[in-house]
Amino acid sequence: MKVTIYDVAKEAGVSISTVSRVINNTGRISEKTRKKVLKVMETLHYQPSMVASALTGKRTRTIGLIIPDVANPFFAEIARKVEDRGRELGFNVLMCNTDNNPETEEMYLSLLKQKSVDGIIIGTTTKNYTVLNELLHEHFPIAFIAQDIPELAIDVVRVDDFLGGYQAVSHLVSLGHKKIAIMLGNLNRTSDKDRLQAYRQVLQENGLEYDERLVIYTDYSMEAGKRAAFELLRSPQKPTAIFACFDSLAVGVYQAAKEMGLCIPEDLSVVGFDNTILATIVDPPLTTVAQPIDEMGRQVVDLIIREIEGEKNMKQRVILPPELIVRHSTKQL
Amino acid sequence: MKVTIYDVAKEAGVSISTVSRVINNTGRISEKTRKKVLKVMETLHYQPSMVASALTGKRTRTIGLIIPDVANPFFAEIARKVEDRGRELGFNVLMCNTDNNPETEEMYLSLLKQKSVDGIIIGTTTKNYTVLNELLHEHFPIAFIAQDIPELAIDVVRVDDFLGGYQAVSHLVSLGHKKIAIMLGNLNRTSDKDRLQAYRQVLQENGLEYDERLVIYTDYSMEAGKRAAFELLRSPQKPTAIFACFDSLAVGVYQAAKEMGLCIPEDLSVVGFDNTILATIVDPPLTTVAQPIDEMGRQVVDLIIREIEGEKNMKQRVILPPELIVRHSTKQL
DNA sequence: GTTGTAAGAGAAAGCGCTTACTCAAACCAA
DNA sequence: TTGGTTTGAGTAAGCGCTTTCTCTTACAAC
């Protein structure tokens, strides 16, 4: 029932090696034989089994994509771009959501290896390095997107988080804000660390006081943003502006503000980060730091595929510039 | 370098079939031997190659998911649920975006088969049945989610679109609206057809005139929704309410209304469909028909896996009830 | 007419597993 | 003790490909 290379060979009156050669376009084949085999393949609806060819040393042409959550627009957009570029280059993507759970991540890492994917793109916060280090040692192709581990020589494609944070906070300062809060995820993400670093530096450069109570650690969900915003806005050190390190957090801020009867940007300025679709549909449209998601997705795929093809032997970090998109959630104080 | 079943066998002083038996927990193995083999596997960090075992007739434990676009929140949420349930049951998902392009879809269908995925879940509008029919004939496990082809006996999990449309339009009518527009995708999707059908029926039941000019065909993007809304709202037959068949279209309506200086719900009532995250973050929160995405994702996976495991031989349609979620985008006329 | 070389294609050995078949040892009832 | 069962484990034949080697022709050069 399933037609194999043997069926084609028999039907065409040649050996399976000849068929294999015309499939892969290798070796020498007379035009006549090639035509004949091609025609038989056609009439028999023959499709080579990728499982079999993977077993004989060829690629699976599949890459794993490990992210926290596709339902999060930022990662959904990344996933889309990765898949697009992968398709262009003949690779499929196996999607893995971990919710940043280290065990899930570790499980996936070894599962993907078992499944012989050709490479793995990681967009999650990794803390547990055991499996990761193993893979790295075996020179398993791995690349990080929107995520970095400074202590390791690895392939990375990310935005310049420090610069992005700098732009965001500078913007608020230039509007006259003095009490600026920052909401971020955990400091395991270097991106968050860099943005916080920028925040401190801008404050310092402008002679503003750094108040720890205005630095809120949370996760990346809207609910978390909302909760954190409530806390901030009800505290005595109520800020006049908030730099939310993800658009999703910013949306949470919007919701809290609305429930408290505060107007954005009149009563509160908000800057987000990522420039996902959320930024444009929220009212007022969110001023945010754009990550070049398209370019990032494209470049990680290119990077990892070059690694897979063995075309490069040196790891590299690609740091792309962010861009502050000023919309209507920020206002002169 | 790569450790295989042979290495384990040699190290443990047994044959490879014994190792295979302990891996798969089949046949009879003495406790002593099993322990010994297990220990060797452990110390050697042995992981069976799934490619090899797939070649010998076992499953790949991978399912393909074909959707229009993960960057669309509705499909992102579906993808997430599918992956979650798949993981629980030991299956990975290969993500495929087609933008509803028939060629891309056909390409993926045959590619997925070549890659020997165990089953395929489809959420796209299929028009081209050739490859699909082939697969169906070969009893290749296929299930549809949020998508149906009434002419075919297939596995389907979807919401009751007629009922959903009925609820949405009835709600608007009950608020006193008489000029109600409907915005939908193309009529190839049965879901759209059913919603339109419901729209007509509600109008009729309430003695309202059916005006073709209030029926707008578009695609599912925000931009399309915006364009369509502009057109409607500037036309002489300007409606007082719009039933947008996707939340994303509804968001487009919001944007158009805002640019035209119209207030929702004072000047225009809007009902969406899907109840994606968009509905809650838009201002005012969108009244919409909720699809039970969690349940749908869970059930397609269960359905297809039962099919894969050969536990069922009859196709079935699972039609889940929608729920009208009244928020603040609709108002008594 | 030899010899040398290149072109075209087949034979066969894997790739890392699963599984049907086989067989020796151990056990048990009569 | 004998014959019949279990039990535990090995042998070997694939699964559907790729690829190295080998071999036969054909043809050009001398």
TrEMBL record, chains A, B:
It comes from the Bacteria. SUPFAM superfamilies: lambda repressor-like DNA-binding domains, Periplasmic binding protein-like I. Keywords: DNA-binding, Transcription, Transcription regulation. GO terms for molecular function: DNA-binding transcription factor activity; transcription cis-regulatory region binding. Transmembrane segments: none annotated. Signal peptide: none annotated. Residues 3-57 form the HTH lacI-type domain. This is Catabolite control protein A. It comes from Anoxybacteroides tepidamans. The lineage of its organism: Bacteria, Bacillati, Bacillota, Bacilli, Bacillales.
